[in-house]
Amino acid sequence: MKHLFLFLFSLVALVTSAQQVEPQKLWPDDPNAAEAEIFVYHPARKASPAPAILICPGGGYAGLAIHHEGHDMARWYASNGFVAVVLKYRMPKGVHTIPLSDAEQAMSVIRSNASQWNVDPNRVGVVGSSAGGHLAASLSTLAADVNRPNFAILYYPVISFDNMVTHGGSKQNLLGKDIGNQELIDRYSLQKQVDDKTPKTLLLLSDDDQSVPPANSILYYTALNEHHIPASLYMFPNGGHGWGFKYDFTYYQEVKDLITKWLQHIGITQ
After folding, report:
1. pTM for the complete prediction?
2. Are the beta carbons of 212 and 241 closer than 8 angstroms?
3. pLDDT tens digit sequence for 211-259
4. Burial (Cβ within 10 Å: 0-12, 13-18, ≥19) of residue 48
5. CATH superfamily of 28-265
C-alpha cells in the first residue's frame, strides 16, 4: 500500500510539473478591474495546434469555487492536450454586465494569443458550473459573435431567472436592485436567447439537485434542440449540486469519459 501511494503521488507530481501555468491580469490597464485574472494551463505535449477551453467556476455570483470547478478541471484538460484557461471573473454586486464582459475579454485574449499559445482559434470552448454555467451559457448566447465559443460544457447550470426554477442567490447577485426588471429577467433567462449561432452543448447534472433545479438544463436543452443545435444531456441519479471535479463524486470517472467521447463526437479531439 505504501509503495502504491508513493507511485500515485509521483505520477500526480509528474503530470502537474509537466503543465506550465501562466497567470495574468485580464484587464492590465484598468486598476478598477485588477481582481479579474486568468490562469493559463499549457499542455505538456505539443499538439499542433491545440484546442482551448475557458473554465468559469461557480459560486452564485458571490464567490468562486475556483479549485474543484476551476483549477482541477484545467489540469485534467491540459493533461489531455488542451490549453485550459481558468477565469477568475469579478463579482457583479448587482452590475449585471461585469461577469459577461470578463468572459468576453477572456475569449478575446485566448483567440488573440492563438499563435503564441499554439491554439486553434476555431476549437475554443467554454466550461461553466452552476452560476459559472450561467456565465458560460451567457457567453454562448449573448456575446458578440467574435467572442462566442465553438462548444460548451455546462455542469448543473443556472439557466432561467424565472422564480419557479432559478437559483435565487445567483439572480439577486447578478441583477441587484434591478431584480424585478422583466427585460433583464428575460435577457438572462438564457433558454430564451438561444439562436442559430449558439454552440454545440453538453449538459451534466444530477436528478437530486436541490440548489439549481434540473429544469434549468432541460429548458436549455429543449431550446437548443428546437434550433437544431447538437446537444446532449446526462442526468445522474444522485450527487446533488456542486460536484464539479471532486474525486469523491460517484460518477467522477463517467463524467470524464462522457466529456472525452462527446469532444471526439463533435470533432474537437480525435
Report:
1. 0.93
2. yes
3. 999 999 999 999 999 999 999 999 999 999 999 999 999 999 999 999 9
4. exposed
5. Alpha/Beta hydrolase fold, catalytic domain (3.40.50.1820)
